[in-house]
Amino acid sequence: MTHATTPTLAGTRSLRTRFWANNKSTLIGCGVLVALMIVVPFTASSSVMNIVVFAMIFALPAIGLNLLMGLAGQVSLGQAAFFAIGAYTHAILLTKLDLPGPVAATVGVLAAMLVALLVGLPLMRLRGHYLALATLGLGFIVMIGVREWDVTGRTTGIYGISRPTVLGIPIDNSGFFLWFVTPFVVIGLILALNLTHSRAGRALSAVNDSELAAESLGVNTYALRLKVFVLSAGFAGLGGVFYAYQVAIVSPATAEFHLSVSILLMVVIGGLGSVWGAVAGAFLVQFLGEGMRDVIPAIFPGATGEVQLLGYGIVLILVILLLPGGLHQAATTLWQKLPFAGKRPPGDAHAHVPEDDTTIPQLPAVSTPVAAGEPILVLEGLSKRYGGVVAVNDVNLTVPAGSILGLIGPNGAGKTTCFNMISGALTPSEGTVTFLDQVISGRKPHVAAAHGLTRTFQNLQVFTSTDVVGNVYMGRYRKGSAGVLRGMLGLQSGEQSTHRAASYEILQSMKLSDAADDSASDLSFGKQRIMEVCRALAAEPALLLLDEPMAGLSGAEREVMAELLRRLRTAGLTIVLVEHDVAQVMSLADHVAVLDDGVLIAYGDPESVRNDPAVVVAYLGTDLDEAEAELNELEEHA
Amino acid sequence: MLTDFLQLTVAGLSQGSVYALLAVGLIAVYTVRHVINIAQGEFAMLAGLGSAWLAAAGMPLLLAILVAILSVTLVAIAMERLIIARVKKLTPLTSIILTLGVSTLLQAIMLLAWGPEAKGVPLFPGTNILIGGVSIRSQEFWMIGALVVVGGGIVLFYEKSRWGKALRACAEQPVAARIVGISPVTASVLAFAIAGFVGGVAGVVASPIYLSLWSGGVLLGLKGFVAAVLGGFVSFRAAIVGALLLGVIEAYVAGYVSSGLRDGAAFLILILVLVVRPQGLVLKPTAVRV
To answer: What is the ipTM metric for this complex?
Structure first.
């Protein structure tokens, strides 16, 4: 156990200080918000009070939408639909069935989440614009539904909702109502903030950088996005519940498209991915709307109706054009310009492993569940066709555990296509991939990753929104277990610090720890490639697929890489690598497989493959003697 | 019985023609910029309200219509130049927010300029026809005719003319297109101009029967989107067929079930299509490259 030292180090600090350090900004922020909400009823005029109450109510759907847009990278233009479902369910249960408030409210939130689940199950598979437009359609369906249904009171809606009573005190004025809603907003805020910083939150932000890489590290993108979508609907439903209490009438207008637009505006103003921004955005939009409703009729006499939309439209466009990060971006920029805001000291949350060049770098843990020499990966009749083009044709191959297999072949031979079928990024036209006695072909990459197969990419797939250690940390994803719920409740800091420490050790073993806190996109091409290998190793795979790991590396870096691969093999890891540098492959690999035009033309130890006439012809495309002469010449040059 | 059915079919086809024109505009922009223009429906409302206002002010109908369509085309070009072109990296997320912003802004302008009531352009000249008990209003001929002439013209333009082929090339191979001398800027402006033009035509021909309303564009644009999805967002022909189908189905729902549920039909179809066949009605294999 090499990384036993760091968790103990962290463990020596008392639990209380660690909790404070991790949650300082959240606690201060919530404290300020609560204090403001306590004071407001005593000082504000009734019109301002009204705005503040609605801002707090709409902060809930805005927080939910912010999670969906910031974390899952998806837009919902139907947030008002879930808001309306919560409001209607709550109102109907209260007025028609006389259920107690807490029960009606819970059912209201669950109803919104259930509808989101039903819509999301098929739709979250689609990317890009589809969810946005489908949810926009859902908004219209909900509006038409409540207008046509007797239970929802058709165009009149549901009225006569009585105010709640808490501990015998009737919540019958705006002040009390504000104090009634504030705890729920604060709890929602904390849950959302926790989620952003959790294992699931980091995974989703990795998905936004590179879906392919995140999935091949074990992230089930579809399931995570679906969960966030359902969660965001739950937030909207809760907002609807409070809205029904406050307004005492629920009409089809709660499902209005323009309400969805205003919720979206709150998120955009606040800054995508910033939970606090969503709350601030809710306040700003409420004040903006109220202001516009006063100002516009003064400028344009006779203007009535939804005139605030003029402001909404302009602000939406301007924010995206001029300040795409919203208020959050503005606040961060401002904060960095302040004289006393020094940069965060590097490595405050972890203990650095001391750098010592004379010691041999530690090896990442390697877990191989089968004995060396036993088959770990079996390809049977693997083929891929694109229309009439055959990219890979009937490849049969068995990879023994604890060895390095080099996969070579001229450009366009089908090497990367083979890799993609093994890792699950592509579905084979025919044939199967069996890994550790499980058929994994045709399933998503996260399935292969869950069984212990990770890969790197020929075209680098770096998580650009985090630092180097953050990239490697993502590799630890499959070693963790905290899900969305545990993440929201903040019950995973122990797990997080262990994995963070392990990430530093892996960087150390590849001499990258100096760059650990640098932004991943600032690294040189070669260093990024090494970082990708570190990331794949962090997952402690049983089988590592490397797609051209040497490309772009300097001579010295190549040596470090080759040495690492040899040592990993000795430790029991199985490696399959695609490489253009034939000399490197020949010196590293135990077995070499040669693909040409999608067909496996040779397989064996490096020496016999090198002398295989078919291979020589494939590489040089000339007759044998001539080819051999050229090959010898080439090797002498190399 | 049969007369009712045929009557509803005619109404559906004429309404479907409007959806088809909007779908053509959506696809024109999408193929070049990969932007789904949420403001597409607003183009139609803007043209409808604008020409109704000009006609009410005493301008001859034909002139009022031409001025309105031309102005909306200019609005679409301005939208491209002033807003869409200014974003360096246009992701699906930002493009939705931006076009939604434009849509909201246009709605507010229409509300301020022409008030909250729905307005209609005067009926186009022509006589209603009665064939075997089925009455076809002359305006319905105008709507279907607009699709045949304008929609058909755009399809021919894309498939036969040098510029049209260039636009398609831009969508498929931006680099190659630039090498043979088509600038992506021109292509983008042209695509938005087409979107504005067809949106404007759809808006004015539909306005006499279906009226124009400041907030009606989103719903109308979404119907066009449903049709575009049926065309897989690439094929004009499949989208036009899908739009006519949608119009007819809506008419049947309104006629046989309940007129209030009419708009719900489109979105149930949308969700159904996205679930069952997201690539649309066209048969085109999609390749993934990793």
So the answer is: 0.89
